[in-house]
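Service request form, structural biology core

Requester: graduate student, group of Dr. S.
Request type: structure prediction, single chain
Budget code: on file
Notes: please return the result as structure tokens.

Sequence provided:
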Amino acid sequence: MTITIHYAFLPHTDADAAIAFYRDTLGFDLRNDVGQGATMRWLTVGPPEQPETGIVLHPPAADPGITDDERRTIHELIAKGSYGALTLATDDLDGLFDRLQASGADVVQEPTEQPYGVRDCAFRDPTGNLIRINERR
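Core staff response, request fulfilled:
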């Protein structure tokens, strides 16, 4: 039996900014764009080299079963950068870091050798999700 990751979900608060970050800056394919308006759109993006793996960027707290208090809490967590996170990997960490920094992405950590054995950097996407990027070795 083989089990793979098919989709992972992260919230977005601005579909156009999310597309600019994931497609235009990271170079991911925009595979699906459904819904309407700036806040009620579901986007599916993913690396061109991994067509079977996607990231669904979704409007946070769109579930009709969520209360107003829960919705506020979710938006507060997103604003703090404590709601969603993703770790990517690249064989050119310094080059990708330079590209992200030049795009104006929010730098959290420059490329660093970590005591747990990886070299990585970190950014926040336009919504505030933490994006860590590991160097493949």
